[in-house]
Design brief:
single chain; 248 residues; alpha+beta; N-terminal domain of MutM-like DNA repair proteins; Helicase, Ruva Protein, domain 3; five-stranded antiparallel β-sheet; 12 strands; 24% strand
């Protein structure tokens, strides 16, 4: 924090979301000071201001499956399961230059992430890291949507992705195709607890691809818990693996 933006380099118009363009980003951010950094779900938010203002611009950063954040030429995450550690110049989708000579950049081979000026974070549900049983109950209430699809909806719970949801439901023994509104109060409480603990544990391990189920998530894979052949299906548009024996 406290660094002053001297340059905005946004060569990829596709990577700029929300209707803005490179000129708008430059106008909003250049000369501003980084006042804070926060996160809601998968959205990283950078707050910018200057000495004469209490509030200023907000920049939202999303990384998708293949985006990496690089600060002062140091990658915050060295390796991503579905990306590349190479730094091809064309993959540098967005960059901030600071007055002290440092930089902040997003490198994204597949352009699955993006940057957005003043994103509406009120559209996001409660963050998965601190999800309470009451918040989860509200997200699932009376829904006939498949449980996995409901958990992937960022408007309901922010921060859960495909691999994470499969891991969580496998650990707790819930069928991803089950109607979201069918969970009992006790099941909701256990699921909220499992979400918090699994997200924290896999974050410490280095990402959702480090889960106990992950290596078995292949055609013909067997459940690491009971050896049952895993079921492969599509739920919420995402490839889903679950154990038909212990996930109910």
């Amino acid at each position: 924090m406290g660094r002053i933006v001297s340059l905005v380099d946004a060569p990829d118009g596709w990577f700029i979301k929300g209707g803005a363009d490179a000129a708008a980003l430059s106008l909003a951010l250049e000369g501003r000071t980084v006042a804070g950094v926060r996160r809601i779900g998968k959205l990283l938010l950078m707050d910018f201001g200057d000495p004469d203002e209490q509030t200023g611009a907000v920049l939202g950063l999303r990384f998708g499956m293949t985006g990496r954040l690089v600060v002062d030429d140091h990658a915050v995450i060295e390796k991503l399961e579905y990306s590349s550690a190479r730094e091809v110049p064309e993959w540098r989708r967005f960059e901030l230059g600071f007055a002290d000579g440092g930089t902040l950049a997003i490198i994204d081979p597949r352009r699955l992430g993006g940057v957005e000026l003043d994103p509406d974070d009120t559209r996001l549900g409660p963050d998965a890291f601190g999800l309470t049983a009451d918040q989860l109950a509200s997200a699932l209430e009376a829904s006939r949507t498949a449980l996995k699809a409901r958990l992937l909806d960022q408007r309901r719970v922010a921060g859960l992705g495909n691999l994470l949801v499969d891991e969580i439901l496998w650990r707790i023994g819930l069928d991803p195709a089950r109607e979201a509104g069918s969970l009992s109060e006790a099941e909701q409480g256990e699921l909220a607890k499992a979400i918090r603990s699994t997200v924290a544990e896999l974050a410490d391990r280095g990402g959702s691809h480090t889960g106990d189920l992950h290596l078995a998530r292949v055609r013909g894979g067997s459940c690491p818990r009971d050896g049952e052949l895993l079921e492969r299906q599509t739920i919420g548009g995402r490839t889903t693996y679950s154990c038909p024996h212990h996930q109910r």
